[in-house]
Amino acid sequence: MSAQPDGSPDPAEPYDVIHLGGETAVVVPVAEYRRFRALEQQASAEELERAGAAAATESYREWIAAGRPPGIPHAEARRMLLGGT
Question: Looking at the whole model, is its pTM more than 0.70?
């Protein structure tokens, strides 16, 4: 498995985006990752649910902005919204 750089950096995003296997990942400094993990561990179930919904909404908006059709397959929607496969 190798990491492939995105190749089209977004000036609004300060991090590198890579494609690793079938997934897209963002490269962040370890200190920021640790801070994120600490926040995640201290967050309530309601806060985590709201954050997950906000992330899914952002992904959907990026999908539409990229010119993709507004509908997505059920399995993809399930994965995005529920984190399942």
Answer: no
Check whether residue 60 and residue 77 sit in a common domain: yes
Cα separation, 27 vs 68, whole angstroms: 25
The position carrying tokens 């994120």 is: 36
Span 40-53, pLDDT tens digits: 999 999 999 999 99
Residue found under tokens 């890579």: 18
- Pick from 54, 35, 56, 38: nearest CA to 46: 54
Domain of 55 in residue numbering reads as 45-85
d(CA 85, CA 70): 21
* Pairwise CA distance, residues 5 & 18, whole Å: 4
